Amino acid sequence: MMGIYKKSSGSAYIAGFDLSTQLSQIYKCVGICPQYDILWGYLTVYDHLLFYARLKKSLLNKALENNTDESAYISQIAENFFLLEIKNKVVKNLSGGQKRLLSIAIAFIGEPKVVFLDEPTTGLDPQMRRLIWNIINKNKKNKTIVLSTHSMEEVEVLCDKVGILVKGRLVCVDSPSKIKHIYGKQYHVTINCNPNNLHRTSQFIEDIIPNNSTVIDSSSNGKTWRVSSSPGIIPNVYKQISSRKSDLYIDDWGINQSTLEDTFISIVSQK
């Protein structure tokens, strides 16, 4: 999508520009965060932001329309991406999460129309991952963000539209909820009950769900089944459990649609 590899066929447009013939215009309106951080160890955070701001001069000039000067704009970027307190630190002394924040901040400099983020949170701890998701959500206004990731949780948090690639082919494009509805068609049935009654309760559940259902989680006081949906199955399961939960000593139960990760695995296994 950035012209590094020659296309095999077809055409593509980014911000209205032809990828084959108008790369110079495309480069002026995009921001990129590669999978691996490309930073200089002996430059500070501020130095990096300033360097890339000046490199993206055409974007920066537009961004500066609402700011007093270049320095104020850089400080605002640092604040937006939680880098203000470390802006004078050299990069070699930053943590992995801080380096990732800097790489993402660089991609957003100059308010580009299109931002490419390649695996933005891979390898980060849950707290830093959540912070970056919040930052991306807060800064996505008036932009198209193209995100590549293997994390289905990340997809559900950040993406309005999802494309799933299998062996290099795009097999579906839609919202996460529609993809789950169209391709998932599976539900998770979960029960928790008195341990002494688990066998009896499990037998009851397995009598009312399809024979091809599978147990995906089990403990001393509960189980979860993956159930393929067909007309009437889920309403019937709901009705049956509701009517028997007291005499089966069911403390807690639920029926949930399968996750996007379950759906992704299902799509990949069918191709």
TrEMBL record:
UniProt domain ABC transporter: residue ranges: 2-122
Pfam families named among the record's database cross-references: ABC_tran
GO cellular component, as recorded: membrane
GO molecular function: ABC-type transporter activity; ATP binding; ATP hydrolysis activity; lipid transporter activity
Keyword terms: Repeat, Transport
Identification of the protein by name: ABC transporter A family member 8
Species whose genome carries this gene: Smittium culicis
